Amino acid sequence: MTTVDGRRARGDVSRASVMRLAVDIATVQGLEGLTIGTLATGANLSKSGIVSLFGTKEQLQLAAIEAARQIFIDVVIHPALQVAGGRARLEALLENWIAYSETRVFTGGCFFAAAAAEMASKPGVVRDAIAQQHNEWDEVIRRVITRAIDKGELPPLDVAQLAYEMRSLLDGANMDSLMGASTAPYSRARAGLRRLLAVEA
Amino acid sequence: MTTVDGRRARGDVSRASVMRLAVDIATVQGLEGLTIGTLATGANLSKSGIVSLFGTKEQLQLAAIEAARQIFIDVVIHPALQVAGGRARLEALLENWIAYSETRVFTGGCFFAAAAAEMASKPGVVRDAIAQQHNEWDEVIRRVITRAIDKGELPPLDVAQLAYEMRSLLDGANMDSLMGASTAPYSRARAGLRRLLAVEA
DNA sequence: CCTACCGATCGGTAGG
DNA sequence: CCTACCGATCGGTAGG
To answer: Is A173–B168 a contact, with Cβ atoms under 8 angstroms apart?
Structure first.
Protein backbone atom coordinates (compact mmCIF):
# COMPACT_ATOMS: atom_id res chain seq x y z
CA MET A 1 0.00 0.00 0.00
CA THR A 2 1.95 3.00 -1.21
CA THR A 3 -0.90 5.53 -1.42
CA VAL A 4 -3.39 6.75 1.13
CA ASP A 5 -6.42 7.21 -1.06
CA GLY A 6 -6.86 3.51 -1.87
CA ARG A 7 -6.14 3.69 -5.58
CA ARG A 8 -3.35 1.12 -5.32
CA ALA A 9 -5.42 -1.12 -3.07
CA ARG A 10 -8.39 -1.12 -5.46
CA GLY A 11 -6.00 -1.84 -8.30
CA ASP A 12 -4.74 -4.95 -6.51
CA VAL A 13 -8.24 -6.23 -5.90
CA SER A 14 -9.15 -5.68 -9.53
CA ARG A 15 -5.97 -7.38 -10.66
CA ALA A 16 -6.65 -10.49 -8.61
CA SER A 17 -10.25 -11.00 -9.74
CA VAL A 18 -9.58 -10.11 -13.38
CA MET A 19 -6.51 -12.37 -13.35
CA ARG A 20 -8.52 -15.47 -12.46
CA LEU A 21 -10.68 -14.78 -15.50
CA ALA A 22 -7.59 -14.20 -17.63
CA VAL A 23 -6.13 -17.58 -16.68
CA ASP A 24 -9.34 -19.35 -17.61
CA ILE A 25 -9.58 -17.56 -20.95
CA ALA A 26 -5.95 -18.47 -21.66
CA THR A 27 -6.55 -22.16 -20.91
CA VAL A 28 -9.44 -22.27 -23.36
CA GLN A 29 -8.51 -19.74 -26.06
CA GLY A 30 -4.74 -19.94 -25.64
CA LEU A 31 -2.31 -17.29 -24.43
CA GLU A 32 -2.55 -15.57 -27.83
CA GLY A 33 -6.34 -15.77 -27.70
CA LEU A 34 -6.22 -13.95 -24.38
CA THR A 35 -6.83 -10.53 -25.96
CA ILE A 36 -7.11 -7.25 -24.14
CA GLY A 37 -10.54 -6.72 -25.69
CA THR A 38 -12.12 -10.04 -24.70
CA LEU A 39 -10.69 -9.81 -21.20
CA ALA A 40 -12.08 -6.26 -20.90
CA THR A 41 -15.54 -7.38 -22.00
CA GLY A 42 -15.51 -10.36 -19.64
CA ALA A 43 -14.40 -8.24 -16.72
CA ASN A 44 -16.79 -5.37 -17.53
CA LEU A 45 -13.89 -2.99 -17.98
CA SER A 46 -12.70 -0.90 -20.88
CA LYS A 47 -9.68 -2.01 -22.87
CA SER A 48 -7.63 0.82 -21.43
CA GLY A 49 -8.71 -0.36 -17.98
CA ILE A 50 -7.05 -3.72 -18.70
CA VAL A 51 -3.99 -1.98 -20.06
CA SER A 52 -3.72 0.17 -16.93
CA LEU A 53 -3.93 -2.97 -14.76
CA PHE A 54 -1.50 -5.20 -16.65
CA GLY A 55 0.42 -3.14 -19.19
CA THR A 56 1.11 -4.74 -22.56
CA LYS A 57 -0.37 -8.00 -23.79
CA GLU A 58 2.96 -9.71 -23.15
CA GLN A 59 2.91 -8.56 -19.53
CA LEU A 60 -0.67 -9.79 -19.28
CA GLN A 61 0.41 -13.20 -20.57
CA LEU A 62 3.28 -13.36 -18.08
CA ALA A 63 0.91 -12.37 -15.25
CA ALA A 64 -1.50 -15.13 -16.31
CA ILE A 65 1.32 -17.69 -16.21
CA GLU A 66 2.32 -16.54 -12.73
CA ALA A 67 -1.30 -16.69 -11.53
CA ALA A 68 -1.72 -20.18 -12.95
CA ARG A 69 1.53 -21.19 -11.25
CA GLN A 70 0.25 -20.05 -7.86
CA ILE A 71 -3.00 -21.97 -8.28
CA PHE A 72 -1.08 -25.08 -9.38
CA ILE A 73 1.16 -24.83 -6.32
CA ASP A 74 -1.83 -24.39 -4.03
CA VAL A 75 -3.81 -27.25 -5.53
CA VAL A 76 -1.15 -29.83 -6.46
CA ILE A 77 2.14 -29.19 -4.68
CA HIS A 78 1.39 -27.72 -1.26
CA PRO A 79 -1.07 -30.45 -0.22
CA ALA A 80 1.52 -33.08 -1.19
CA LEU A 81 4.12 -31.37 0.97
CA GLN A 82 1.86 -31.99 3.98
CA VAL A 83 2.42 -35.70 3.44
CA ALA A 84 5.59 -37.28 4.85
CA GLY A 85 8.42 -37.24 2.31
CA GLY A 86 8.93 -40.53 0.48
CA ARG A 87 6.73 -42.81 -1.57
CA ALA A 88 3.56 -41.53 0.12
CA ARG A 89 4.34 -37.94 -0.89
CA LEU A 90 5.05 -39.03 -4.46
CA GLU A 91 1.71 -40.84 -4.63
CA ALA A 92 -0.06 -37.79 -3.21
CA LEU A 93 1.60 -35.49 -5.74
CA LEU A 94 0.54 -37.70 -8.66
CA GLU A 95 -3.00 -38.11 -7.37
CA ASN A 96 -3.30 -34.35 -6.79
CA TRP A 97 -2.25 -33.75 -10.39
CA ILE A 98 -4.85 -36.20 -11.68
CA ALA A 99 -7.54 -34.50 -9.61
CA TYR A 100 -6.29 -31.07 -10.81
CA SER A 101 -6.84 -32.16 -14.40
CA GLU A 102 -9.95 -34.27 -13.88
CA THR A 103 -11.87 -31.68 -11.82
CA ARG A 104 -11.00 -29.02 -14.39
CA VAL A 105 -9.44 -26.52 -12.01
CA PHE A 106 -8.99 -24.68 -15.30
CA THR A 107 -11.80 -24.97 -17.83
CA GLY A 108 -9.51 -26.22 -20.58
CA GLY A 109 -7.63 -28.81 -18.51
CA CYS A 110 -4.00 -28.33 -17.49
CA PHE A 111 -3.01 -24.71 -18.14
CA PHE A 112 0.65 -25.58 -18.62
CA ALA A 113 0.07 -28.44 -21.06
CA ALA A 114 -2.00 -26.10 -23.22
CA ALA A 115 0.42 -23.20 -22.93
CA ALA A 116 3.52 -25.33 -23.56
CA ALA A 117 2.07 -26.79 -26.76
CA GLU A 118 0.96 -23.36 -27.94
CA MET A 119 4.18 -21.46 -27.24
CA ALA A 120 6.70 -24.25 -27.89
CA SER A 121 7.78 -22.88 -31.26
CA LYS A 122 7.22 -19.17 -30.63
CA PRO A 123 10.47 -17.71 -29.25
CA GLY A 124 10.18 -14.97 -26.68
CA VAL A 125 9.85 -14.25 -22.99
CA VAL A 126 6.43 -15.91 -22.78
CA ARG A 127 7.77 -19.15 -24.20
CA ASP A 128 10.73 -18.91 -21.83
CA ALA A 129 8.42 -18.48 -18.84
CA ILE A 130 6.42 -21.54 -19.86
CA ALA A 131 9.59 -23.56 -20.44
CA GLN A 132 10.73 -22.59 -16.95
CA GLN A 133 7.47 -23.82 -15.39
CA HIS A 134 7.80 -27.03 -17.40
CA ASN A 135 11.28 -27.52 -16.01
CA GLU A 136 10.31 -26.58 -12.45
CA TRP A 137 7.50 -29.14 -12.46
CA ASP A 138 9.97 -31.80 -13.61
CA GLU A 139 12.32 -30.75 -10.81
CA VAL A 140 9.58 -31.05 -8.21
CA ILE A 141 8.79 -34.60 -9.30
CA ARG A 142 12.46 -35.55 -9.43
CA ARG A 143 13.03 -34.17 -5.94
CA VAL A 144 10.09 -36.10 -4.50
CA ILE A 145 11.25 -39.29 -6.25
CA THR A 146 14.77 -38.82 -4.95
CA ARG A 147 13.47 -38.44 -1.41
CA ALA A 148 11.61 -41.74 -1.73
CA ILE A 149 14.79 -43.44 -2.93
CA ASP A 150 16.82 -41.90 -0.12
CA LYS A 151 14.32 -43.24 2.40
CA GLY A 152 14.66 -46.70 0.87
CA GLU A 153 11.04 -46.73 -0.28
CA LEU A 154 11.99 -46.95 -3.95
CA PRO A 155 14.98 -48.74 -5.49
CA PRO A 156 17.84 -46.57 -6.83
CA LEU A 157 16.36 -46.13 -10.30
CA ASP A 158 16.89 -43.51 -13.01
CA VAL A 159 15.16 -40.48 -11.49
CA ALA A 160 14.97 -38.39 -14.69
CA GLN A 161 13.58 -41.37 -16.59
CA LEU A 162 10.88 -42.06 -14.02
CA ALA A 163 9.94 -38.38 -13.78
CA TYR A 164 9.60 -38.22 -17.56
CA GLU A 165 7.41 -41.32 -17.66
CA MET A 166 5.17 -40.07 -14.87
CA ARG A 167 4.72 -36.63 -16.41
CA SER A 168 3.99 -38.26 -19.77
CA LEU A 169 1.25 -40.46 -18.34
CA LEU A 170 -0.32 -37.45 -16.59
CA ASP A 171 -0.20 -35.23 -19.68
CA GLY A 172 -1.41 -38.09 -21.85
CA ALA A 173 -4.47 -38.61 -19.67
CA ASN A 174 -5.17 -34.85 -19.66
CA MET A 175 -5.10 -34.75 -23.46
CA ASP A 176 -7.06 -37.99 -23.98
CA SER A 177 -9.71 -36.68 -21.60
CA LEU A 178 -9.97 -33.35 -23.42
CA MET A 179 -10.18 -35.09 -26.79
CA GLY A 180 -12.60 -37.81 -25.76
CA ALA A 181 -14.61 -36.23 -22.94
CA SER A 182 -14.29 -39.42 -20.91
CA THR A 183 -12.83 -40.18 -17.48
CA ALA A 184 -11.35 -43.51 -18.61
CA PRO A 185 -7.97 -41.83 -19.30
CA TYR A 186 -7.58 -41.00 -15.63
CA SER A 187 -8.14 -44.63 -14.64
CA ARG A 188 -5.47 -45.57 -17.15
CA ALA A 189 -3.14 -42.95 -15.72
CA ARG A 190 -3.61 -44.37 -12.24
CA ALA A 191 -2.99 -47.90 -13.52
CA GLY A 192 0.13 -46.85 -15.40
CA LEU A 193 1.53 -44.93 -12.44
CA ARG A 194 0.77 -47.84 -10.10
CA ARG A 195 2.83 -50.10 -12.30
CA LEU A 196 5.69 -47.60 -12.37
CA LEU A 197 5.63 -47.64 -8.56
CA ALA A 198 5.30 -51.43 -8.32
CA VAL A 199 9.02 -51.91 -7.83
CA GLU A 200 10.56 -53.31 -4.67
CA ALA A 201 12.95 -51.03 -2.82
CA MET B 1 -9.20 -32.84 -64.60
CA THR B 2 -12.65 -31.49 -65.42
CA THR B 3 -11.57 -28.64 -67.73
CA VAL B 4 -9.53 -28.59 -70.91
CA ASP B 5 -7.76 -25.28 -70.51
CA GLY B 6 -5.70 -26.34 -67.48
CA ARG B 7 -7.22 -23.99 -64.94
CA ARG B 8 -8.18 -26.85 -62.65
CA ALA B 9 -4.78 -28.49 -63.11
CA ARG B 10 -2.89 -25.35 -62.18
CA GLY B 11 -5.16 -24.92 -59.19
CA ASP B 12 -4.24 -28.39 -57.97
CA VAL B 13 -0.52 -27.73 -58.29
CA SER B 14 -0.86 -24.46 -56.42
CA ARG B 15 -2.93 -26.12 -53.74
CA ALA B 16 -0.35 -28.82 -53.12
CA SER B 17 2.65 -26.51 -52.81
CA VAL B 18 0.83 -23.87 -50.80
CA MET B 19 -0.61 -26.56 -48.56
CA ARG B 20 2.80 -27.82 -47.46
CA LEU B 21 3.58 -24.26 -46.36
CA ALA B 22 0.23 -24.00 -44.59
CA VAL B 23 0.90 -27.15 -42.57
CA ASP B 24 4.25 -25.84 -41.45
CA ILE B 25 2.81 -22.46 -40.47
CA ALA B 26 0.07 -24.24 -38.52
CA THR B 27 2.57 -26.38 -36.62
CA VAL B 28 4.51 -23.29 -35.52
CA GLN B 29 1.86 -20.57 -35.21
CA GLY B 30 -1.10 -22.84 -34.51
CA LEU B 31 -4.18 -23.49 -36.62
CA GLU B 32 -5.59 -20.11 -35.56
CA GLY B 33 -2.27 -18.43 -36.36
CA LEU B 34 -2.54 -19.85 -39.86
CA THR B 35 -4.09 -16.67 -41.30
CA ILE B 36 -5.07 -16.09 -44.89
CA GLY B 37 -2.81 -13.03 -44.98
CA THR B 38 0.37 -14.68 -43.69
CA LEU B 39 -0.14 -17.71 -45.93
CA ALA B 40 -0.66 -15.37 -48.90
CA THR B 41 2.54 -13.48 -48.16
CA GLY B 42 4.54 -16.68 -47.68
CA ALA B 43 3.20 -18.16 -50.91
CA ASN B 44 3.61 -14.93 -52.90
CA LEU B 45 -0.09 -14.81 -53.57
CA SER B 46 -2.78 -12.29 -52.78
CA LYS B 47 -5.22 -12.96 -49.99
CA SER B 48 -8.03 -13.52 -52.47
CA GLY B 49 -5.76 -15.99 -54.25
CA ILE B 50 -5.64 -18.07 -51.06
CA VAL B 51 -9.38 -17.73 -50.64
CA SER B 52 -9.97 -18.92 -54.19
CA LEU B 53 -7.76 -21.97 -53.55
CA PHE B 54 -9.11 -23.01 -50.15
CA GLY B 55 -12.31 -21.12 -49.42
CA THR B 56 -12.85 -19.96 -45.86
CA LYS B 57 -10.28 -20.06 -43.09
CA GLU B 58 -12.08 -23.03 -41.58
CA GLN B 59 -11.78 -24.93 -44.86
CA LEU B 60 -8.12 -23.98 -44.99
CA GLN B 61 -7.62 -25.39 -41.49
CA LEU B 62 -9.39 -28.61 -42.43
CA ALA B 63 -7.26 -28.90 -45.58
CA ALA B 64 -4.12 -28.42 -43.49
CA ILE B 65 -5.21 -31.21 -41.14
CA GLU B 66 -5.82 -33.52 -44.09
CA ALA B 67 -2.43 -32.65 -45.61
CA ALA B 68 -0.68 -33.29 -42.30
CA ARG B 69 -2.53 -36.59 -42.02
CA GLN B 70 -1.27 -37.72 -45.43
CA ILE B 71 2.31 -36.84 -44.52
CA PHE B 72 1.98 -38.65 -41.18
CA ILE B 73 0.65 -41.75 -42.93
CA ASP B 74 3.49 -41.64 -45.47
CA VAL B 75 6.22 -41.12 -42.89
CA VAL B 76 5.04 -43.12 -39.87
CA ILE B 77 2.36 -45.64 -40.79
CA HIS B 78 3.03 -46.91 -44.30
CA PRO B 79 6.67 -47.86 -43.69
CA ALA B 80 5.59 -49.81 -40.59
CA LEU B 81 3.03 -51.71 -42.66
CA GLN B 82 5.92 -53.00 -44.79
CA VAL B 83 7.16 -54.85 -41.71
CA ALA B 84 5.58 -58.21 -40.87
CA GLY B 85 2.61 -57.82 -38.51
CA GLY B 86 3.39 -58.50 -34.86
CA ARG B 87 5.91 -57.20 -32.38
CA ALA B 88 8.32 -56.15 -35.15
CA ARG B 89 5.65 -53.94 -36.78
CA LEU B 90 4.80 -52.38 -33.42
CA GLU B 91 8.46 -51.57 -32.81
CA ALA B 92 8.76 -50.08 -36.29
CA LEU B 93 5.66 -47.94 -35.80
CA LEU B 94 6.99 -46.53 -32.53
CA GLU B 95 10.46 -45.91 -33.90
CA ASN B 96 8.99 -44.19 -36.97
CA TRP B 97 7.01 -41.89 -34.71
CA ILE B 98 10.11 -40.98 -32.71
CA ALA B 99 11.99 -40.22 -35.93
CA TYR B 100 9.00 -38.22 -37.21
CA SER B 101 9.19 -36.00 -34.13
CA GLU B 102 12.96 -35.94 -33.71
CA THR B 103 13.79 -35.09 -37.33
CA ARG B 104 11.14 -32.35 -37.26
CA VAL B 105 9.15 -33.45 -40.27
CA PHE B 106 7.12 -30.42 -39.21
CA THR B 107 9.05 -27.41 -37.92
CA GLY B 108 7.13 -27.28 -34.66
CA GLY B 109 7.30 -31.00 -33.84
CA CYS B 110 4.24 -33.24 -34.06
CA PHE B 111 1.47 -31.39 -35.90
CA PHE B 112 -1.29 -33.32 -34.16
CA ALA B 113 0.05 -32.83 -30.64
CA ALA B 114 0.17 -29.07 -31.26
CA ALA B 115 -3.25 -28.95 -32.92
CA ALA B 116 -4.93 -31.15 -30.31
CA ALA B 117 -3.71 -28.97 -27.46
CA GLU B 118 -4.73 -25.81 -29.29
CA MET B 119 -8.22 -26.90 -30.34
CA ALA B 120 -9.09 -29.16 -27.39
CA SER B 121 -11.46 -26.62 -25.81
CA LYS B 122 -12.66 -24.84 -28.95
CA PRO B 123 -15.81 -26.63 -30.16
CA GLY B 124 -16.33 -26.86 -33.90
CA VAL B 125 -15.59 -28.89 -36.98
CA VAL B 126 -11.84 -28.21 -36.75
CA ARG B 127 -11.68 -29.58 -33.22
CA ASP B 128 -13.77 -32.56 -34.34
CA ALA B 129 -11.37 -33.28 -37.19
CA ILE B 130 -8.41 -33.19 -34.81
CA ALA B 131 -10.20 -35.40 -32.30
CA GLN B 132 -10.86 -37.89 -35.10
CA GLN B 133 -7.17 -38.00 -36.03
CA HIS B 134 -6.32 -38.45 -32.36
CA ASN B 135 -8.70 -41.38 -32.18
CA GLU B 136 -7.54 -42.89 -35.47
CA TRP B 137 -3.93 -42.85 -34.32
CA ASP B 138 -4.95 -44.63 -31.13
CA GLU B 139 -6.81 -47.20 -33.24
CA VAL B 140 -3.77 -47.82 -35.41
CA ILE B 141 -1.61 -48.54 -32.38
CA ARG B 142 -4.26 -50.74 -30.81
CA ARG B 143 -4.63 -52.74 -34.01
CA VAL B 144 -0.89 -53.31 -34.30
CA ILE B 145 -0.67 -54.32 -30.63
CA THR B 146 -3.60 -56.71 -31.05
CA ARG B 147 -1.87 -58.34 -34.01
CA ALA B 148 1.24 -58.93 -31.92
CA ILE B 149 -0.87 -60.53 -29.20
CA ASP B 150 -2.70 -62.70 -31.72
CA LYS B 151 0.62 -63.92 -33.07
CA GLY B 152 1.68 -64.82 -29.53
CA GLU B 153 4.49 -62.26 -29.55
CA LEU B 154 2.98 -60.30 -26.70
CA PRO B 155 1.01 -61.62 -23.71
CA PRO B 156 -2.76 -60.93 -23.68
CA LEU B 157 -2.51 -57.56 -21.94
CA ASP B 158 -4.87 -54.56 -21.80
CA VAL B 159 -4.57 -53.19 -25.33
CA ALA B 160 -6.16 -49.79 -24.68
CA GLN B 161 -3.97 -49.34 -21.62
CA LEU B 162 -0.77 -50.16 -23.49
CA ALA B 163 -1.73 -47.95 -26.43
CA TYR B 164 -2.37 -45.05 -24.04
CA GLU B 165 0.97 -45.54 -22.31
CA MET B 166 2.87 -45.72 -25.59
CA ARG B 167 1.20 -42.63 -27.04
CA SER B 168 1.87 -40.79 -23.77
CA LEU B 169 5.58 -41.58 -23.85
CA LEU B 170 5.81 -40.45 -27.48
CA ASP B 171 3.93 -37.21 -26.90
CA GLY B 172 5.87 -36.58 -23.70
CA ALA B 173 9.18 -36.86 -25.53
CA ASN B 174 7.93 -34.56 -28.30
CA MET B 175 6.97 -31.90 -25.76
CA ASP B 176 10.10 -32.27 -23.61
CA SER B 177 12.21 -31.94 -26.73
CA LEU B 178 10.38 -28.79 -27.85
CA MET B 179 10.66 -27.25 -24.40
CA GLY B 180 14.28 -28.21 -23.75
CA ALA B 181 15.81 -28.37 -27.22
CA SER B 182 17.58 -31.60 -26.32
CA THR B 183 17.48 -35.10 -27.80
CA ALA B 184 17.61 -36.78 -24.37
CA PRO B 185 13.78 -37.08 -24.29
CA TYR B 186 13.88 -39.40 -27.31
CA SER B 187 16.35 -41.71 -25.58
CA ARG B 188 14.01 -41.77 -22.61
CA ALA B 189 11.07 -42.54 -24.88
CA ARG B 190 12.96 -45.48 -26.38
CA ALA B 191 13.89 -46.74 -22.90
CA GLY B 192 10.32 -46.44 -21.65
CA LEU B 193 8.87 -48.17 -24.69
CA ARG B 194 11.47 -50.93 -24.43
CA ARG B 195 10.36 -51.59 -20.88
CA LEU B 196 6.70 -51.66 -21.93
CA LEU B 197 7.63 -54.28 -24.51
CA ALA B 198 9.82 -56.27 -22.12
CA VAL B 199 7.04 -58.70 -21.28
CA GLU B 200 7.15 -62.39 -22.11
CA ALA B 201 4.44 -63.68 -24.41
C1' DC C 1 -10.33 3.70 -14.20
C1' DC C 2 -12.93 6.25 -18.68
C1' DT C 3 -13.83 7.94 -23.91
C1' DA C 4 -11.97 8.70 -28.15
C1' DC C 5 -8.92 7.60 -31.36
C1' DC C 6 -4.75 5.45 -34.05
C1' DG C 7 -2.60 2.25 -37.72
C1' DA C 8 -2.38 -2.64 -38.65
C1' DT C 9 -4.44 -6.90 -39.53
C1' DC C 10 -8.35 -10.01 -39.46
C1' DG C 11 -11.68 -12.81 -42.66
C1' DG C 12 -13.51 -12.17 -46.24
C1' DT C 13 -16.53 -9.94 -50.90
C1' DA C 14 -17.12 -7.53 -55.46
C1' DG C 15 -15.84 -7.41 -59.83
C1' DG C 16 -12.94 -8.61 -63.24
C1' DC D 1 -5.56 -15.73 -60.00
C1' DC D 2 -5.66 -9.98 -59.33
C1' DT D 3 -6.93 -5.02 -57.14
C1' DA D 4 -9.84 -2.60 -54.35
C1' DC D 5 -12.56 -2.45 -50.71
C1' DC D 6 -15.61 -3.77 -46.43
C1' DG D 7 -16.67 -3.95 -41.22
C1' DA D 8 -14.61 -5.95 -37.14
C1' DT D 9 -11.00 -6.54 -34.06
C1' DC D 10 -6.15 -6.26 -32.81
C1' DG D 11 -2.72 -3.85 -29.46
C1' DG D 12 -2.29 -0.12 -27.85
C1' DT D 13 -1.92 5.77 -26.92
C1' DA D 14 -3.66 10.49 -25.63
C1' DG D 15 -5.78 12.97 -22.43
C1' DG D 16 -8.39 13.28 -18.61
So the answer is: yes
